[in-house]
Amino acid sequence: MTNLRWTACWLLWGVVALGQNAPSVIVIRAGTLIDGKSDKPRSNQIIVIRGNRIESVSAEANAKTPAGAAVIDLSGKTVLPGLIDSHTHIFLQGEDPAKGGYDANILSQGLALRALRAGVAARRALEQGFTTLRDVETEGAGYGDVGVKQAINLGYIPGPRLFISTRAISTTAGYMLEGYAPELEMPKGAQIVDGPVEARKAAREQLDHGADWIKVYMTHRSWVGKNGELASQPTLTVEELRAIVDETHGWGKKVACHAYSGIGLHRALDGGCDSIEHGLDLDDAAISQMLKQGTWYVPTLNVYYTDWAPADTPDGQRDRLRASAHEVSFKKARKAGVKIVYGTDMGGIPWTEPVAQDFPRMVEFGMQPMNAIQSATSRAAVMLDMEGKIGVIAPGAFADVIAVNGDPLLDIKLLENVDFVMKDGQVFHSK
Ligand SMILES: [Zn+2]
């Protein structure tokens, strides 16, 4: 996006956010409507929006346009609900290893700089049509996501609806920064706990300070195992995880577990995780346990195709195995009927890249385009306990509406070029 366009978007946002000349009723003419829930699109629909909510959706032939309504003509476009990415890190920027990578982000960037960059990441998500993010931890920036969410909700900066998880939880030897002299006390990208008492206390602190979800790392390092399998180092014990899950469920909230494979993945399921993040190597037992427990699966396919080490090195072999195992797991989980929700790990990927980049992978790996869209709309909304409120264009939902040119069911890549974005009844940008 050019500076000029950014300025135009910002002005538009400012005017609407302040309520000047903002009509209380907006009518959208949708040429084609993919409502986020129905199996089939509908053509020539009229969406009536009053304030920040959708009031009605009806066929143009039967629709009555309320008097005085502002009309937005998207009759040449495909209209969809605002998209949801359920695995992002606005406090990461795809750190370049040549510039110090992950460690430099923590060691040499102050919290104000990190928060401002997180604000830019949030805006980039919104301008690409992602009106909701579940952001799964700040990577050493403490409770910075609480502040960014407040800034968005108070109208200071444009950004998606944020579901935040603050600091995340892992164990000793279970998170970066690492590899420094043992006598140095290094800062960590997650809150470190050992034992169920510390684990429960960390969950309490994070929930107290505004976590909407608790994020737990159930595996850390990974390598190619003795039998050629993707091996990963387990972190929390089942006892430690149960303390976190028990506490979090008591608050009516959920636990997202980063888990690659093996022992850590099985502990995540035995301990009652609500969502498995990445899930690179799901064996059959894990898949049947996920079905039985209703566990959500948030694969992050595309990120594992970036930054491979050379093929003849152990890390390079590990990197390739992560991608190939993930493909197999995704296909098995989809066939078995596991509830799959869209996630990218943006932040691990620079925010200059498209947030919609996982859709083509999902379709390449056999998911129907409509199913892939629902993984980022109505299905994600159910996981976030927002069913009927987001991820759908239907009466009563928040007016989060986007549009693209052409038919994303024929070419899913079109979702990378969203040219109309409305969040909460306010037009953010329109080409
Ligand atoms: Zn992540």
User: What molecules are bound to this protein?
Assistant: zinc ion
> Main sheet, how many strands, which sense, barrel?
7 strands, mixed
Spatial extent as radius of gyration? 22 Å
Mean pLDDT: 94
Count of helical regions: 12
Helix content: 25-40%
Low-confidence stretches: 1-20
Q: CA-to-CA gap between the ends?
A: 12 Å
For the biggest β-sheet, the strand order reads 3-2-1-4-17-18-19
State the shape. Answer: globular
- The class by helix and strand makeup works out as alpha/beta
Number of strands: 19
Sheet-strand content, in percent, reads 15-25%
Oligomer state of the chains in this structure: single chain
Describe the structure.
With 431 residues, the protein is of the alpha/beta class. 32% of the residues lie in helices and 24% in strands. The chain has 12 helices and 19 strands. It has helices spanning 3-17, 101-107, 111-127, 144-153, 196-208, 238-250, 262-270, 284-293, 314-336, 358-364, 369-375, 378-383, and strands spanning 25-33, 42-50, 53-59, 70-81, 83-88, 130-135, 161-164, 169-170, 191-192, 213-217, 219-224, 230-234, 254-259, 275-278, 296-298, 339-340, 401-404, 418-423, 426-430. The strands form 5 sheets. The protein has a 7-stranded mixed sheet. The longest helix is centred in the last third of the chain and has 23 residues, at 314-336. The radius of gyration is 22 Å and the shape is globular.
